[in-house]
Request: fold
Amino acid sequence: MRAPGRRAASTREPLAEVAAVTQRLSVLLAAGVTPASAWQHVAASTGSTLASRVAGASSTSVADAVIDAAARLDPLEGAAWRGLAAAWTVATAAGAPLAPCLRRYSQSLRDLAQAQRDARVALAAPVATARMVLALPIVGVLFGTALGFNTLAVLFGTAIGWICLAVGAALMAIALKWNASMVAKARPKDPAPGIGCDLMAIAVSGGSALDHARAIVDETVARFSLPAIVGVDEVLELSRSAGVPAAELLNSQAEELRRVATARAQEDAAALGVRLMLPLGLCILPAFMVLGVFPLLVAVISSTVGSL
Reply:
């Protein structure tokens, strides 16, 4: 009965896998299942390799086990697991209920995973176009050969052809590197926007004073190499001045930061779809002219002069 779950986990996106594990942990913990049993049940039901390692690491704390298991993962996925470990650590230190925080954190990861899917959809057309156009230089060479002109001899047997090969190859290499660089820059870097507010909300929900709660969160953020805390100080000042509990204000601020991050990711994906046309016009099309059209013209002129 476990095989289907494991096959499904193998096809799941990394962030979606972390979100699924976190969501199931929150449900089990809210139902009163012990943490050790919760990890075992989640590992069995999701087939997550990392969850299995944490469930089997009985000699270390949950947070340390998560960090050890996530050490060799992709940076974004590893940061998502570190966020889970940080939430677990803060809740343990502050004596706060963990299940509500894990539920919110899983939703944050689901939102980010959906933003990545939206980015892939937005990039599908320009990326496919760029890949197709990359074949144009080869098509130009084959077209010239089909017309009866020995463009390959021009490219590989003459000084002009060698220059064309060098220039065309350089243009295509630049286009490939340019495309990869733009796609990499458009990918989300923060797996848990608003994690600082979430952690602070956990700490204060355990009954800790604000200064003590902030110390716990700062220490945890530094320990797990999480992004710098954003938006917490303003919320705490509002809580003090208005005399209202800080937890709900912090949760609201975290949700706002997640909405902003999701919108920014969607905007970056839409803009990238346009920017990917730059390497097409500035590198790929000139490479087509240099490798496909110019050698064909040289072959035509050479054959014409030779026939005279």
Summary: Residues 83-307 form one domain. The CA atoms of residues 203 and 212 lie 9 Å apart. Confidence is low (pLDDT under 50) at residues 1-12. DSSP finds 15 helices and no strands in the chain.
